[in-house]
Amino acid sequence: MQGHLRSDGRKGIRNQLLVVYLVECAHHVARLIVDQSGQAEVQLVGFPGCYPNAYALRIMKRLCTHPNVGGVLLLSLGCEGFNREELEAAIRASGRPVETLVIQECGGTRKTLAAGLAATARIGGKMAEQGRVDMALDELVVGTICGGSDGTSGISANPAVGNSFNRLVAAGATCIFEETGELIGCEHIMMERAVTPELARQIDAVMHKAANYYETMGFGSFAPGNAEGGLTTQEEKSMGAYSKSGDSPISGLIKPGDLPPRGGLYLLDVVPDGEPRFGFPNISDNAEIVELIACGAHLILFTTGRGSVVGSAISPVIKICANPDTYRRMADDMDVNAGVIIEGDASVEQVGGDIFEQVKAVAAGASSVSEALGHQEFILTYKTFEPIGPGCLPTARVA
Amino acid sequence: MINRKAHVLLHQKDNILVSCRDLTPGETLCIDHQPVVLTQMIPLGHKIARRPLAKGEKILKYGASIGSALADIVVGDHVHLHNMKSDYIPSHTRKAVG
After folding, report:
1. Which terminal residue of chain A has fewer beta carbons within 10 Å of its beta carbon, N or C?
2. Are A214 and A229 in contact (CB under 8 A)?
3. DSSP code per residue over A166-210
4. In 10 A of CB B25, how many CB atoms?
5. Which residues contact A398 (CB under 8 A, 6 or more apart)?
């Protein structure tokens, strides 16, 4: 496999050109630029709000300097609160081509569209000059998420992803599992897997935070479809979701935008710190995917029982279907059929091996199904985080 | 499809089974070597009582507690929102919000 070498030493499995709107008011013009550029690798991401947010700025910096991203066009209306100067400086410092267009200065929709198309052509030209280098499996970062879970998820697709995570971690890769709100009830077994007692205490603390946060919001991370699919309680859903993590020791606890320091298995804490302020921790699956990507994930393993069609901007999404009936209905949107485990036709180990092979193929350039269908969903909203506590990354300290 | 197994036991400690296909009323299951005639529809992925459960008893899946029984439950019953609850955060459906 080959990757695009970036100035920080990380390598990308894709070379995307991001068009970034910095407020909803610039969204339509940004979309026109992406659509009319006529290139699949030009992708649309953005932030809707006019008020500034330190978390959103940090995540956007991480996304714009993600190894899968080769160049960026920033699109501002002009009066919004997003710190476009700081974002542009961070992208420029990473060695990537970047330009900013301000709609109020450009003179409106038509003129900004014309300027944007010229800018994406310039940025794309610079990106094409960069060659590719060899990339090893231990340089790969893989995230996992489940969406539309049902009673089959926790016995087929999720443990199969856990098996693939065991294989990836053994090969030196970095694996990230997340959504602490969907791990409520698993805190004790998770703490036993922490590489140090202090890390176990930190995991316990973030799990309490998640339970308190969701209790205040009045809803668990549990959708009506989960119940229709046979899941009854938050902790039942959690036990199933947890099996995506596999059996490796937990090497660290990170927050959105933190980069794991080395290979191994990491837990991503997605629940904001402090009093609930901006609403639900993650309002949809894609908000979680964006945070995994902000932690450096090159690709995402997405398990579903009820069925999901989403992909993502920036990093390819591999879809693993847990439920054999759902697979028959939605096969065109799925990369891997883990429903064969339910039907007794394959083992968790066999499907785990299939997922591992699929990861290597997509990392080497093959399109995942959602990628080929053009799925580039993206959502980023307001949050508040404190830095991770001491002892969350024990392997970084001894390194 | 005819031979597809009806259910799976995920952990020896569990007091529920998970259905591997849609199960229909009148169907006879073999639960721990005993024949049990189903009285309810149990869709794929849903839970079936493996043991008689008393109100308040913990429901065990994957060998871990996933909530408590809200009523006495007999072997072969559908175990779901109507007869068990979370010990953490209440679940919600589209019809009952807030």
Report:
1. C
2. no
3. HHHHHTT-EEEEE-GGGGTT-HHHHHTTBSSHHHHHHHHHHHHHH
4. 10
5. none
Tokens of A46: 């953005």
Phi, psi at A146, each rounded to 5°: -115, 145
Residue B62's closest CA among B12, B21, B19? B12
Q: Average per-residue pLDDT in chain A?
A: 96
Point out which residues pair with A77 in neighbouring strands.
Answer: none
Contact A1, A24 (CB under 8 A): no
- Sort out which chain B residues have CB atoms less than 8 A from A230's CB and list them: 18-19, 43-47, 80
Q: How far apart are CA A129 and CA A286, in angstroms?
A: 32
Tell me which H or E stretch contains A146.
strand A141-146
How many Cβ contacts (< 8 angstroms) between chains A and B? 108
Q: How far apart are CA B18 and CA A295, in angstroms?
A: 35
Query: What does pTM read for this prediction?
Result: 0.95
Q: Looking at chain A, which residue has its C-alpha nearest residue B43?
A: A230
CA angle A165, A149, A360 (to 5 degrees): 30
- A244: buried, middle or exposed (CB in 10 Å: 19+, 13-18, 0-12)? buried
CA distance A319 to B63: 28
Instruction: Give residue A336's region: left, alpha or beta (phi > 0; psi -120 to 50).
Output: beta
What CA dihedral angle connects A380, A382, A387 and A393, to 10 degrees? -30
Q: Do A22 and A74 meet the contact criterion of CB atoms below 8 Å apart?
A: yes
A271-313 pLDDT, tens digit each: 999 988 998 988 999 999 999 999 999 999 999 999 999 999 9
| Residues in CB range of A156: below 8 A, 6 or more apart | A322, A323, A338, A339, A340, A341, A342, A348, A351
CA distance B29 to B76: 8
Interface of B to A at Cβ within 8 Å reads: 4-5, 8, 10, 18-20, 43-47, 61-62, 64-67, 79-81, 84-94, 98
pLDDT per residue as tens digits for the range A166-182? 999 999 999 999 989 88
Degrees to nearest 5, angle at CA A88 with A87 and A91: 90
Please answer whether residues A58 and A82 qualify as being in contact, where contact means their C-beta atoms are separated by less than 8 angstroms.
no
User: What residues in B contact A192, CB-CB < 8 Å?
Assistant: none
Residue showing tokens 């098996």: A163
| H runs (alpha helix) in chain A | 27-37, 54-64, 84-93, 103-106, 109-128, 157-170, 187-191, 197-217, 224-228, 234-242, 285-294, 324-330, 339-342, 348-363, 369-372, 394-398
ipTM here: 0.90
Distance CA A363, CA A372 (A): 14
